TrEMBL record:
<dbReference type="Pfam" id="PF07823">
    <property type="entry name" value="CPDase"/>
</dbReference>
<dbReference type="GO" id="GO:0004113">
    <property type="term" value="F:2',3'-cyclic-nucleotide 3'-phosphodiesterase activity"/>
</dbReference>
<protein>
    <submittedName>
        <fullName>LigT-like protein</fullName>
    </submittedName>
</protein>
<dbReference type="InterPro" id="IPR009097">
    <property type="entry name" value="Cyclic_Pdiesterase"/>
</dbReference>
<dbReference type="GO" id="GO:0009187">
    <property type="term" value="P:cyclic nucleotide metabolic process"/>
</dbReference>
<dbReference type="InterPro" id="IPR012386">
    <property type="entry name" value="Cyclic-nucl_3Pdiesterase"/>
</dbReference>
Length: 196
């Protein structure tokens, strides 16, 4: 895939979201492929560069450093997708700030925007073969009891022992990630703080 920019929650919020991301259908509906359900950090992909992109990390850092926005992330819905990287995901409200940062970063880097379903945060990655056996729907049904509609959005119960509802977060960093090879081998190259 190449180098990507991720909008990420705080480490505390990320740990809570991982409680949802680590849920599995019980009993398992199928024997899933070893490629389904890899572990990854919760993130919203802001920009993706191809493997052969000549764009340097310093250019990406500069593009992020010039951002003077607070990014309030609000969860809109939980959706089942038709692609491995959008198996089951949180659709995020496209606020003016998120639209502005998306345009800004792509313009600074000099590439056309190619971020399908922007903005969204994947909860799991499930292979197409497992999806054909109903695994994406099974995961969705498993977390359905941990979701609730709130106004125009949705919240998830990310608590371990007690209820802890999360309907969004304030992003404080953008990560530069190298997404080559197996997902669990993806590397975080840098963490750039946002300065509202």
């Amino acid at each position: 895939m190449g180098i990507t920019l991720w909008i990420v929650p705080s480490s505390t919020c990320a740990a809570k979201l991982k409680h949802i991301m680590n849920v599995r259908p019980v009993p398992p509906t199928t024997t899933t492929s070893s490629s389904s359900y890899p572990r990854f950090d919760p993130h919203i992909t802001l920009l993706s560069l191809p493997v052969d992109s000549p764009t340097s990390i310093s250019v990406l850092r500069d593009a992020i450093a010039s951002i003077q926005l607070s990014l309030d992330i609000e969860f809109k819905s939980i959706d089942i997708g038709t692609h491995f990287f959008r198996s089951v995901y949180i659709a995020v409200q496209l606020t003016p700030a998120l639209a502005e940062i998306h345009t800004h970063v792509h313009k600074k880097v000099g590439v056309e925007p190619k971020t399908p379903k922007y903005p969204h945060m994947s909860l799991c990655y499930i292979t197409d073969e497992d999806a054909q056996q109903g695994e994406r729907e099974a995961f969705y049904r498993t977390i359905e009891g941990k979701t609730r509609k709130e106004g125009e959005g949705v919240s998830l119960d990310c608590g371990e022992l007690t209820e802890e509802w999360i309907g969004g977060f304030v992003a404080s960093e953008i990560w530069i990630a190298e997404c080559n090879g197996p997902i669990e081998d993806w590397t975080i190259l840098d963490k750039v703080p946002l300065h509202p």
